[in-house]
Design goal:
This protein is α+β, with helices and mostly antiparallel strands and about 170 residues long. Helix content is about 20%, strand content about 35%. The chain has a 4-stranded antiparallel beta sheet.
Amino acid sequence: MQTFHIECVPSETERDGDGDSEAQSASDRASERGQRAEAVEVDTVVIESEGDDAETMSTLGTFESHVENMFHGVTEGWEYKMEVFYSHFPMQVNVEGGEVVIENFLGEKAPRRTPVHGDTDVEVDDEEITLRGPDKEAVGQTAADVEQTTRVTDKDTRVFQDGVYITEKPAGGA
């Protein structure tokens, strides 16, 4: 039987594992993932499997990383920084409800919109955008969607470098 022990559970974090999912919460942040949790103890999350082949070990390692990212998200949070670059038409970026709205991109009359995923908080400060949240995947997907929304497809990208670009993102893990 292969087992991973994760020793990254802070005392202020509450845990709830019902066998089918794992949920974490700390103060006002929460993270949840619907994967099978074999055993949850008070101070340690134990992930175990009866198989020891390469595929099983790979799955256990992936699940370990997801759980560590959940703990990191609810204790410290995840943060992406983006910058608005333009040379032809001044863009305006706003947050309206659950959407990021980009106005005047390359002089377009209609604003471009992209959804904000999960519990991601989006702060716009002039030409800098900061995305924060407890779920690494939701924050990263929101950042990627904003970047893709302003992708230039029908012009020479060496000349038209306008867009919103990710300038800072979390390191490779928790």
